[in-house]
Specification:
By secondary structure, the chain is α/β, with parallel strands linked by helices. The protein contains 12 helices and 18 strands. The strands form 3 sheets. Strands 3, 5, 6, 9, 10, 17 and 18 form a 7-stranded mixed beta sheet that branches. The protein has a 6-stranded parallel beta sheet with strand order 13-12-11-14-15-16, sandwiched between helices. A 5-stranded antiparallel beta sheet has the order 4-1-2-7-8, with no helix packed on it. The protein folds into 2 domains: 223 residues, Medium-chain alcohol dehydrogenases, catalytic domain (Quinone Oxidoreductase, Chain A, domain 1, Alpha-Beta Complex), CATH 3.90.180; 136 residues, Rossmann fold (3-Layer(aba) Sandwich), CATH 3.40.50.720. The longest helix has 13 residues. Helix 5 packs parallel to helix 6 and helix 8 runs parallel beside helix 9. It starts with a strand and ends in an 8-residue tail after the last strand. This is Alcohol dehydrogenase. It comes from Enemella evansiae. GO terms for molecular function: oxidoreductase activity; zinc ion binding. Its cofactor is Zn(2+).
Length: 377
């Protein structure tokens, strides 16, 4: 079928909306008309060549929409279902079987391989130009910067009727990454302290999630007072503007009166990563979430680390999309996870503007509207 997609032809090239062809869903696949898609720094990092997605290709990985067709053997969702497009996974490796599909042993291929992960056409892209020339797609299993997406049926998550589809796409990645790192990885106990470095979409989602735990001190660190004010509104007990602060980890320790139990880096900036690690003490856990450039390295003090300190990397909030996303939607419905306040909407042809506004720090979580929800499938 013919669809419209924001195509990137080469590294550093622009997003250009064009008509391309998309396969019908095969066994285990679903076709989803995309209503809206969140815009994430990972999309921009991939366009810039920092992730090895083949180009030309279709990016976007925070999509939500309506199922319009299903392939053979699909009975988990049906035509007309409203869904969030979750992360792809093979389902058969040790990590998938252990309940951690974010760490699927084929995760690199799944998210940036540019082709199908499963099915009879595994290794092939379902996207092509009008002349038949292949185009890389299946970015994070969805390539949601398009009017339609071809996704694995086992990766999509149903959305309740009363929840706007244009809102929930970011639960596929950015918002779930911050919240899941707290709820699935840190799991702070009664009286715990938790520090969040970086009050963007991921960090503020972590703050919101932390307010739904027994943690009693939640510290947000950023360089923008406006974002720190939001963090306070979302439940941070303390905030620190790190501008001009020589040692942020020491400033945090002074504020808390002790090393933190948990510290999360949501920036991917190596100097901040190192401060994050220094913030926690014996048996404390530093959780690395932010996406640093490929090949980046960090250092830490060995002596202090061997005293039970843990340094943990987290992808996508860990766990299963089918558990985490519905939980976050329910917390939102109850007024306990107001992630809608982070979102600003753009039209599909404003994708570049949305990215630029995010880069300037003017918008926390941009979302592009691609098609009206009420449009016939």
């Amino acid at each position: 079928m013919q669809i419209s997609a924001a195509l990137v032809d080469e590294v550093n090239g622009p997003f250009t909306v064009r008509d391309i062809e998309l396969d019908d869903p095969g066994p285990g696949e679903v076709l989803v008309r995309v209503v809206a898609s969140g815009v994430c720094h990972t999309d921009e990092n991939t366009r810039r060549g920092n992730m090895p997605m083949p180009l030309p290709g279709v990016l976007g990985h925070e999509g939500a929409g309506v199922v319009t067709a299903v392939g053979a053997g699909v009975d988990s969702v049906a035509v007309g279902d409203r869904v969030v497009l979750g992360w792809p996974f093979c389902g058969g490796c040790a990590n998938c079987l252990a309940g951690q599909p974010r760490y699927c042993e084929r995760v690199g291929e799944a998210v940036v391989g540019g082709h199908r992960l499963l099915g009879p056409k595994v290794g092939q892209s379902g996207y092509r130009r009008a002349d038949g020339t292949p185009v890389a797609g299946h970015f994070f299993g969805q390539s949601s910067f398009a009017t339609h997406s071809l996704a694995q049926a086992n990766a999509v998550v149903r959305v309740p009727e009363e929840i706007p589809l244009e809102l929930v796409g970011p639960l596929a990645c950015g918002i779930a990454t911050g919240a899941g790192a707290v709820l699935n990885t840190a799991r702070p106990q009664v009286g715990a302290s938790l520090v969040v470095y970086g009050a963007g979409a991921v960090g503020l989602a972590a703050v919101m999630a932390a307010t739904n735990t027994p943690a009693t001190r939640i510290v947000a660190v950023d360089v923008h007072d406006s974002r720190l004010e939001l963090a306070r509104q979302f439940g941070a007990t303390d905030t620190i503007n790190s501008t001009g602060v020589e040692s942020v980890s020491e400033a945090v320790r002074e504020r808390l009166g002790a090393p933190a139990d948990f510290a999360l880096d949501c920036t991917g900036i190596i100097s901040v990563v190192e401060q994050t690690i220094a913030t926690v003490g014996m048996r404390g856990t530093a959780i690395l979430i932010g996406g640093a450039p490929a090949g980046a390295t960090f250092t830490t003090d060995h002596f202090s680390t061997v005293f039970g300190k843990r340094i943990v990397g987290v992808l996508g909030g860990e766990g299963r999309s089918h558990v985490l996303i519905p939980a976050l939607i329910e917390l939102y419905r109850q007024g306990r996870f107001p992630f809608d306040r982070l979102i600003q909407y753009y039209d599909f042809d404003q994708l570049e503007e949305a990215i630029a506004a995010s880069h300037r720090g003017e918008v926390i979580k941009p979302v592009v509207r691609i098609s009206p929800e009420e449009q016939p499938g």
